[in-house]
Design a protein that fits this description.
The chain is an alpha+beta fold. The protein is 31% helix and 26% strand. The protein has helices at 11-22, 38-42, 56-61, 71-76, 79-88, 108-122, 183-190, 211-214, 251-257, 260-269, 293-306, 325-332, 345-356, 412-427; strands at residues 3-7, 26-30, 51-52, 63-65, 93-95, 100-103, 125-127, 132-139, 148-155, 160-162, 165-168, 195-201, 205-207, 219-229, 232-243, 247-249, 281-286, 358-365, 373-378, 393-394, 396-398, 406-407. The chain starts with a strand and ends with a helix.
Length: 428
């Protein structure tokens, strides 16, 4: 029997502790907060989107960073295996729109309770209020090219715990109140691992346009959102979005934020390779994606013909929500008091373009406190994808959001945590 320490009692940590315990090891699960699964508790608006029931090809397609690294993890313990484990532990599940999987009760606490029961059944030792200060390593013989060997951890209270292996499952930097304060990133750097730049992801976006504030609270459904920098398009999808006092949010925007990092790299190079000449990152909203420009123009002609004596600002009720009309009139550069039968063909064509490409300029993201996940983390180049073991420190493993792995919203990020956690626990 080996002594295994798991740092972090979130999704990846609990799964790693279960997998290691089931293989006959003595596992100590260290959680610095007062209870397990604090971030799980708030996921899915408190309902916990456990995973996504789509096929594996779709799972991989929804991973934004380093999808190939997850091959062994996903195939070794997939979404069906997660659902089976949770239901066997006493938490029935259901599948909703978009293949999202939730507990039947709609209470995330039931998922956490199921994992807690499973941990106890497996004989894992759970220690709360146990914050790790540092990893304890010693020099290796160097014969395998690995220069360090894990020996245990030191807690903040000074206590040292010795073990044969340590699995780091401390999360990223989002929702710091749940315990995700970057501890594992610090441990990784202290032991020689590369940590890629971290940024908020699945997060609302800030924009330069003041008129977003005037639309605060307005939700748009069945629109198309594009993210563009220069001539390159980074994202295009249809769905729902929301205007806020700082810019935009909602499902489309959160997913678009996953691609902001790549767009920012392009932007910082500038149009001529000069870092000072940055290219703006634009969002374009197609308010009528079901209509081509030609069809939309005919629709405008018909609407204007039916209301030929109305002022432009009063003839748009059939096209947009009331709150959006003044903004569209302002951005159109057409006098709102102008009669619709006086609007020129050029003005109408220009208005069609505005409806199909309502522009916004991205100035940044909201902070980590508002981000669902962290993009960036421990470089996957320093980790063996077949075991989750460090290539630099023997007996040290990483799993979950601490790694440079992230995905779209819809249960995909939790699946990464479950799969990598299971693989790490299985491999120790």
């Amino acid at each position: 029997m080996s002594e295994i320490i798991v740092i972090g009692g979130g999704a990846a940590g609990m799964m790693a502790a279960i997998a290691a315990s089931e293989r006959g090891h003595h596992v100590v699960l260290l959680e610095k907060k007062e209870k397990l699964g604090k971030k799980l508790f708030i996921t899915g608006k408190g309902r916990c989107n456990v995973t996504n029931a789509a096929d594996l090809e779709t799972l991989f397609a929804n991973v934004c960073s380093n999808a190939k690294f997850l091959y062994s993890a996903f195939y070794g313990f997939d979404n069906r295996a997660v659902m089976d484990l949770v239901e066997r532990a006493g938490c029935p599940l259901k599948i909703e729109r978009g293949e999202r999987v939730f507990p039947v009760s709609d209470h995330s606490s039931d998922v956490i309770a199921a994992f807690t029961r499973k941990l106890k059944q497996c004989g894992a030792e759970i220690r709360l209020h146990a914050e790790v200060k540092a990893l304890l390593c010693e020099a290796s013989d160097g014969k395998t090219g690995i220069r360090q060997q894990i020996k245990g951890v030191q807690l903040v209270n000074g206590q040292k715990l010795w073990s044969d292996a340590v699995i780091v499952c401390t999360g990223g930097l989002s929702y710091a109140s749940t315990g995700s304060t970057g501890d594992g990133l610090k441990f990784a750097e202290e032991t020689g691992h590369k940590v890629t730049p971290c940024r908020p992801s699945l997060v609302p976006l800030q924009t330069a346009q003041d008129w977003c504030r005037d639309l605060m609270g307005l939700s748009l459904k069945n629109v198309e959102l594009r993210m563009v920098c220069g001539k390159k398009e980074y994202y295009r999808e249809q769905g729902e979005m929301l205007f806020t006092h700082f810019g935009v949010s909602g499902p489309l925007v959160l997913t678009a934020s996953c691609y902001l990092g790549n767009a920012q790299k392009k932007s910082s190079k500038g149009s001529k390779g000069n870092a000072e000449q940055t290219e703006p990152i634009r969002l374009y909203i197609d308010l009528k994606p079901a209509l081509s420009e030609e069809q939309l123009d005919k629709r405008l002609l018909r609407d204007f013909d039916e209301q030929k004596n109305k002022q432009f600002k009063n003839a748009l009720g059939g096209l947009f929500p009331a709150k959006l009309i003044p903004v569209m009139v302002m951005l159109s550069d057409i006098d709102g008091d102008k009669k619709v039968n006086e609007i020129t063909k050029e003005e109408r064509k220009s208005f069609v373009q505005l409806i199909k490409n309502l522009p916004l300029t991205v100035t940044g993201t909201r902070p980590f406190a508002e981000a669902i996940i962290t993009q960036g983390g421990v470089s996957v180049k320093d980790v063996n994808p077949s075991t989750m073991e460090s290539k630099l420190v023997k007996g040290l493993y990483f799993a979950g959001e601490v790694l440079d792995l992230d995905a779209h919203t819809g249960g995909f990020n939790l699946q990464i945590a479950w799969s990598t956690g299971h693989l790490a626990g299985e491999s120790v």
